[in-house]
Amino acid sequence: MAATELTAPGQGRGLLDVLANRYLLRLIVRKEVQVRYRGSVLGILWSYIKPAVQFGVFYVAMGVFLGLNKGMENYAVYLFSGIIAMNFFNEAFGNAARSIVGNGNLIKKIYLPRELFPASSLWVAFIHFVPQVIVLLVACVFTGWVPNLWELGAVLAGFLIIGIFALGLGVVFATANVFFRDAENIVDLLVMVATWASPVLYVWTMVREAAPWLVNLYFLNPLTVAVELFHYGFWHPTVTSGGTWEIPPHLFSVWTPAALVISVAFLVLGDVVFRRFEGNFAQEL
């Protein structure tokens, strides 16, 4: 009998195992959704309530008190399109980073591809992202949203950037969190900073005016690019003039490809780090 190649116990093929175990992925996603809303009166309605409250607070604080809605047509659409983009990232990244420790009891009992857990967090975040997009689309239609293929492609590109980047960062911090529980505090800080480090509540030109030397570094943040792509796809078709907003130079020719490359690089890094240390997860947990 020909000898078969042996693999080290507890080690898998990383993200390839996720693709090969789609049935298990669906089970984990279903379990995560059920656990989250167990005992909840409103259930999935929280996917509408939370962004609605966020939007109300930010609109009053930034739009009314600070006057950002003045001179900007349909500022509400501009603001909400950025909010749902960041909500998608924050939930996918935060839950993915906690997914291994959160499922520690299951990981210690049986072996299954461990990257299924952060991948399932991305899918759960997508489930909550869809209702928010529906609300945004309704608002866009009422404000005259008639997008072309280029603008729809911008939304798709922004969605891919956020998903890939969130999963990559989530896998890295999910690994770190097993060995250093302080990683959760870093995740909380990054989630808090992410909204303010991207043009969600303000216009990117404010960065250019306040610190011109910072603009290139600012757009090396994939989330900045993704939010601007959401603005271009959702908000831009609803206005007759940009007002205080203008399309960032080289958004499509330079910054979007760069954001995709950076996001994929983080995903590859996360996969390598995860596979390197996952054999020790059970004993550390």
UniProtKB/TrEMBL annotation:
Keywords: Cell inner membrane, Cell membrane, Membrane, Transmembrane, Transmembrane helix, Transport. It is found in: Cell inner membrane; Cell membrane. PROSITE patterns: ABC_TM2 (PS51012). The chain crosses the membrane at residues 48-68, 75-93, 122-142, 154-180, 186-205, 217-234, 254-274. Its main location: membrane. It comes from the Bacteria. It is a multi-pass membrane protein. Residues 42-277 form the ABC transmembrane type-2 domain. Belongs to the ABC-2 integral membrane protein family. PANTHER family: INNER MEMBRANE TRANSPORT PERMEASE (PTHR30413), TRANSPORT PERMEASE PROTEIN (PTHR30413:SF8). This is Transport permease protein. It comes from Propioniciclava soli.
